[in-house]
Write a structure and sequence with these properties.
The structure holds 2 protein chains of 2 kinds. Chain A is mainly alpha-helical. Chain A has a domain of about 375 residues: Sodium/glucose cotransporter. Chain A is about 70% helix and about 5% strand. Chain A contains 22 helices and 6 strands. Chain A has a two-stranded antiparallel sheet with strand order 1-3. In chain A, strands 2-6 form a two-stranded antiparallel ribbon. In chain A, strands 4-5 form a two-stranded antiparallel ribbon. In chain A, strand 4 and strand 5 form a beta hairpin. Chain A is globular and about 80 Å long. The relative contact order of chain A is 0.17. Chain B has one domain. Chain B has a two-stranded antiparallel sheet. Helices cover about 80% and strands about 5% of the residues of chain B. In chain B, strand 1 and strand 2 form a beta hairpin. By secondary structure, chain B is mainly α. In chain B, helix 1 packs antiparallel against helix 3. The chains are: A mainly alpha, B mainly alpha. The interface between A and B is large, with 46 and 41 residues.
Chain lengths: ~575, ~90
């Protein structure tokens, strides 16, 4: 059977499964809709959290990114797992003890102010929407490559599915669907990784395989990869290029941001008690670590395979996948030195970076592009980093069903995260904005109706982002972490671990963190992209890592302002004491 | 003999101590071994990996998982102790 037919079958079966689960776990009350009635088993919640967390970015993009960054890619691995330690030790148990529906609920109550709640809602919506847009793009890529439908139709189908189970099932439906999606996505990630590990090193465990010797050669894979790359003119794969302070700050921003992401935190409201909240954070990290420890193995295998199978190979003899992805527009080649061979080298191959195809073919049948060739780089190939995981099974010549499986896994990753995000957005609108701020006397039934209606609106907006992606989406997703780190994380942390931080302190802290971080990002990424280099950055910290400084500013401002304003009321001090007990 | 808990402040102090020591390890393996002294550790080889590289891409993640489970286990004991001493009428 062809890859395409198999993909249709796999995707069809998994979609049918998700819908069945959604119908069987409909939500009847606001408590079920928002937090699944607090009845979720910690292991199931761990899986759901993992699926919620591991987005199209983790599944599709991360290994590819690390593949091209080498050592510097470690920031994502440590950053996106280390945050769970903070979450488990510092936030999850206490927020569960507090026991309401949302993150703004906590901030609004602890800081006894609807303004604090409102600021939290704004931060939450900015963070979540930038994130959800990236998911819809992931759905679009998978549909266009593997099912050969237009990206627009792909996005509409994806939206339809998410809409169906989010509106019907709320958090309850989403949680159980995510359990299924976790199983699909982890299986789809591991199978090709294991295959490739066996092919290259003979070791069936990818985590050990990428430290092993290459089959029939007396050299370690990473050593060989370092040699090949140095030969071509790259830095060795296992050496870092980024400044230590920047690596430090990016890792910290990703960790702190992870712990402050509302769609992750809200997961810990869904379990029965404090002990279960701790346990589900532990299980979630195990389930996440399975993918996150496999990803760097996939990255180095992919880089090795890519260079082995295409460097100094003539275009005519290049493998079929190279041409398939060129057809989609995610690979481009120009024979700069007129030798008919494909050559990789450091630097961007083209200017602008993304290829603009003309409607003609060159001497070897390649697609001709209109871009300039930057004089500094000998690099002849543009490869979109997002394709490394999707193309990996083809590059390693794995059977067709593995390729189909990866497509279904990527969809599971994108849909599960999109659903989780849409739910926190709609919850914060219907619960925090409408029920708690605008129309406090509406009935539960009416609130549930508003909740479903806000999911509907959120799905439409997310879908529009997917169909008409603003050019900055991919960049902005990374910044969602910086913003969460600089706003929500410190507000929650200080709310639990101190009694002295009052509403004036928390509000000015969040606003200071938000303005500083957002301002820094906007300045370097959108207003003056030409200045965006380490010599102009504050202390050599890139916009990706600036959230760490934003967090420190937030804490500093909160403490100063609190010390100058009125003490926190006694009932709030009692509330904090209560949260701290098991 | 371990001392029994006299009040909720003891529970909170014990909790803070546990969290602080676990976070110290958390910082040491990730920011320490994976970033700050990674270059130094790279001179050692560990199962075919440079040691600093291994910490950054594998080791720190394993330690994170272990830390959370130590926390779960210790807190369960702490909760139990707190409950017992409260039942005794303190």
């Amino acid at each position: 059977m062809s890859v395409q037919a198999l993909t249709y079958i796999f995707v069809g079966i998994t979609f049918a499964l998700y819908i069945t689960i959604a119908i069987r776990s409909r939500a009847g009350s606001t408590s079920e809709f928002y937090i699944a009635g607090k009845g979720v088993n910690p292991i199931a919640n761990g899986m759901a959290t993992a699926a919620d967390w591991m987005s199209a970015a983790s599944f599709i993009s991360m290994a590819g990114l690390i593949s091209f960054l080498g050592r510097d890619g470690s920031v994502y691995l440590m950053g996106w797992t280390g945050g769970y330690v903070l979450l488990a030790l510092l936030l999850a148990p206490y927020l569960r003890k507090f026991g309401q529906f949302t993150v703004p609920d906590f901030i609004g109550t602890r800081y006894y102010s609807s303004l604090a709640r409102l600021v939290a809602v704004i931060c939450l919506i900015i963070v979540s929407f930038t994130y959800v847009a990236g998911q819809m793009r992931g759905v679009g890529i998978v549909f266009s490559r593997f099912l050969e439908v237009d990206i627009e139709i792909g996005v509409v189908i994806g939206m339809g599915i998410v809409f169906f189970y989010a509106v019907l099932g709320g958090m309850k439906g989403i949680t159980y669907t995510q359990v299924a999606q976790y199983c699909v996505l982890i299986f789809a990630y591991l199978v090709p990784a294991i295959f490739i590990s066996i092919l290259i090193t003979g070791n069936p465990i990818p985590q050990f395989g990428f430290g092993d010797r290459i089959i029939d050669q007396d050299i370690y894979l990473l050593e060989k990869l370092d040699l090949i790359m140095t030969d071509i003119g790259f830095e060795p794969y296992t050496n870092g290029l980024k400044e230590t302070i920047d690596v430090f700050c990016i890792t910290a921003a990703l960790m702190l941001g992870t712990a402050g992401l509302p769609h992750v935190i809200v997961r810990f409201f869904t379990v029965p008690d404090v002990a279960s909240a701790r346990r589900s954070a532990g299980y979630a990290l195990i389930f996440i670590a399975i993918l996150y420890t496999t990803a760097p193995a996939v990255s180095s295998f992919a880089r090795y395979n890519l260079l082995e199978s295409t460097h100094d190979v003539s275009y005519q003899q290049a493998p079929q996948w190279f041409k398939n992805w060129e057809d989609i527009g995610l690979i481009a080649w120009r024979d700069k030195n007129n030798d008919g061979l494909i050559q990789h080298a450091p630097g961007n191959a083209f200017d602008p970076i993304k290829p603009k195809y003309l409607d003609s073919s060159g001497d070897f049948g390649e697609r001709v592009i209109a871009n300039n060739s930057p004089p500094k780089s000998r690099n002849e190939v543009y490869i979109d980093r997002d394709i490394m995981v999707l193309a990996n099974p083809e590059i390693a010549e794995l059977p067709a069903w593995v390729i189909a499986l990866v497509a279904a896994g990527a969809l599971a990753a994108a849909l599960s995260t999109a659903a989780g995000l849409l739910l926190v957005i709609s919850t914060s609108v219907s619960h925090d904005l409408i029920k708690k701020t605008l129309a406090t006397n509406i009935s539960e039934k009416k609130e549930l109706m508003y909740a479903r209606f806000s999911v509907f609106i959120a799905v439409i907006i997310a879908g529009l982002f997917g169909i008409y992606p603003p050019g900055f989406v991919a960049q902005v997703v990374a910044f969602a972490f910086g913003l969460a780190a600089a706003t929500l994380f410190p507000a929650i942390l200080l709310g639990i671990f101190t009694k002295v931080i009052n509403k004036e302190g928390a509000i000015s802290g969040m606003i200071a963190g938000l303005i500083f971080t957002l301002g820094y990002i906007l300045y370097f990424k959108f207003m003056h992209p030409d200045l965006n280099s380490s010599s102009n950055w504050l202390w050599g910290i890139s916009p990706e890592g600036i959230g760490t400084i934003g967090m420190l500013i937030n804490i500093f401002v909160s403490i100063i302002v609190s010390s100058m304003t009125k003490q926190t009321p006694d009932e709030i001090r009692d509330l904090v004491d209560q949260i701290r007990q098991p | 003999m371990e001392k029994s808990f006299t009040n909720k402040n003891d529970y909170w102090a014990a909790n803070l101590k546990l969290v602080a020591s676990l976070l110290l390890i958390w910082f040491f393996v990730s920011f320490g071994c994976g970033i700050l002294f990674a270059d130094y550790l790279d001179q050692f080889t560990f199962f075919g990996f440079k040691l600093g590289f291994w910490f950054a891409q594998q080791g720190s993640i394993y330690v994170f998982v272990i830390l959370i489970f130590i926390y779960i286990h210790k807190m369960q004991k702490l909760d139990q102790k707190f409950k017992n001493s409260n039942d005794k009428g303190n």
